[in-house]
C-alpha cells in the first residue's frame, strides 16, 4: 500500500520560504523587492540561498513569485514550458526583445501558458502584495534562464555578475568570478533573431484561460486546461486541470502518475487510507503514484483547485506562431 507523509508531501502557503537573491536582477531598481519560491524541484534559481521545499521532481517543477506593487521580473526566456496562475493580485505579463511586442493582464485564478522561446517578464500592477504560482517543464527546468542582454548589463551596474557557470556573484559583498569562469556572454544579434516577437492577438487566444470560464466548464467534470485535449492545446510534459465544487465525486481513486494539487479558492478535504487533511489556497500537495485518495471541498462557498499530472511528452517546444 502506498503511504502518504504530509510533512514531506505538503507545502503550506504559510511555510513558504522566500529568496530575494534568486536572480541576476536582485539589485536592479524596480526588481529588487521580488521574492522567489521553489516548492518542488530545483527550479531555475541562480543563487545558493534558494530554499527547496521538495526536491523530488515529478517531471516538472513548481515554484512561485511574490512581489509588492510596481515590482517587476526582468525579461528572460526558458527552453521549456513556463505556466503561471495568479493566486493573489493583478498582474501584467509582457513579452518581446524589449518587452513591447505584446502584453496581457491576468486577474486572480487566470492561467497563462507562456509560449516557449520568447522573452517574457511580469509586473504586479495591483495595490497589494501579489503571488503567482508557476509550473516549469522538465526535471531540471530546462537548464536555467536566458536573459535579455540589457538585463545582464543593468545588473552589472548594480553589483551582480552572472558567471558562465550559471551562478551569481555579488561584487557588493566582495565576490568575484572564480579563476577560469568567464562572465555569461551576451546573446549576439544573430542569436537574438531566434527569439520570436508574437503579437498579443497571436498569444492570448491560445495561451490564456480565464478563471470564470474554467469555473463554468468544470461544473460537472474537471476542466482540461493544458494538454493534448485541453482548452490551451499543448504537450509540455504535463497536463493541467481545473476543478471546482462539482468536478469530482467524493470517492477514492488513484492514478499511476504524480499528481500535484494546488488550491485556488476554498478549503479542500484530502483523504487517504489512514488519514486526512485540509488543503488551503496557496498550499501544494504532491500525491505519489498509486495512492488511493479522495478530494472534495470541506466547506460551502466558492472552491477551485488546479491539478497537474506528469505525462510522457517532451518538456517543451518553441513558439511556432
TrEMBL record:
Q: Which organism is it from?
A: Bosea eneae
Residue span, Cupin type-2 domain: 69-132
The UniProt entry, under InterPro entries, shows:
Cupin_2, RmlC-like_jellyroll, RmlC_Cupin_sf
Taxonomic lineage of the native organism? Bacteria, Pseudomonadati, Pseudomonadota, Alphaproteobacteria, Hyphomicrobiales
Q: Which SUPFAM superfamilies match?
A: RmlC-like cupins (SSF51182)
Q: Which Pfam family, an example, fits this chain?
A: Cupin_2
Q: What is this protein called?
A: Cupin domain-containing protein
Amino acid at each position: 500500500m502506498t503511504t502518504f507523509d504530509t510533512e514531506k508531501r505538503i507545502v503550506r502557503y504559510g511555510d513558504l520560504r522566500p529568496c530575494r537573491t534568486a536572480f541576476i536582477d536582485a539589485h536592479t531598481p524596480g526588481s529588487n523587492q521580488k521574492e522567489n519560491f521553489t516548492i518542488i524541484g530545483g527550479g531555475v534559481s541562480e543563487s545558493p540561498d534558494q530554499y527547496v521545499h521538495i526536491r523530488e521532481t515529478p517531471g516538472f517543477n513548481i515554484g512561485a513569485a511574490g512581489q509588492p506593487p510596481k515590482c517587476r521580473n526582468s525579461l528572460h526566456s526558458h527552453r521549456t514550458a513556463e505556466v503561471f496562475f495568479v493566486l493573489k493580485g493583478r498582474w501584467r505579463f509582457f513579452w518581446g526583445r524589449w518587452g513591447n511586442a505584446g502584453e496581457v493582464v491576468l486577474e486572480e485564478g487566470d492561467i497563462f501558458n507562456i509560449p516557449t522561446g520568447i522573452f517574457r517578464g511580469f509586473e504586479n500592477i495591483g495595490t497589494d502584495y501579489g503571488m503567482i504560482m508557476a509550473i516549469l517543464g522538465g526535471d531540471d527546468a530546462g537548464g536555467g534562464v536566458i536573459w535579455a542582454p540589457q538585463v545582464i548589463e543593468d545588473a552589472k551596474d548594480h553589483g551582480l555578475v552572472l558567471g558562465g557557470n550559471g551562478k551569481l556573484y555579488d561584487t557588493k559583498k566582495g565576490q568575484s568570478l572564480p579563476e577560469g569562469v568567464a562572465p555569461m556572454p551576451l546573446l549576439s544579434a544573430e542569436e537574438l533573431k531566434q527569439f520570436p516577437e508574437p503579437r498579443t492577438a497571436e498569444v492570448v487566444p491560445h495561451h490564456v484561460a480565464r478563471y470564470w470560464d474554467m469555473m463554468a466548464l468544470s461544473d460537472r467534470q474537471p476542466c482540461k486546461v493544458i494538454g493534448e485535449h485541453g482548452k490551451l492545446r499543448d504537450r509540455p510534459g504535463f497536463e493541467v486541470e481545473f476543478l471546482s465544487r462539482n468536478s469530482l465525486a467524493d470517492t477514492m481513486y488513484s492514478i499511476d502518475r504524480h499528481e500535484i494539487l494546488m488550491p485556488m479558492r476554498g478549503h479542500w478535504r484530502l483523504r487517504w487510507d489512514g488519514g486526512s487533511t485540509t488543503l488551503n489556497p496557496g498550499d501544494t500537495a504532491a500525491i505519489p503514484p498509486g495512492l488511493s485518495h479522495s478530494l472534495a471541498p470541506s466547506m460551502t462557498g466558492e472552491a477551485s483547485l488546479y491539478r497537474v499530472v506528469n505525462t510522457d511528452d517532451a518538456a517543451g517546444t518553441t513558439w511556432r506562431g
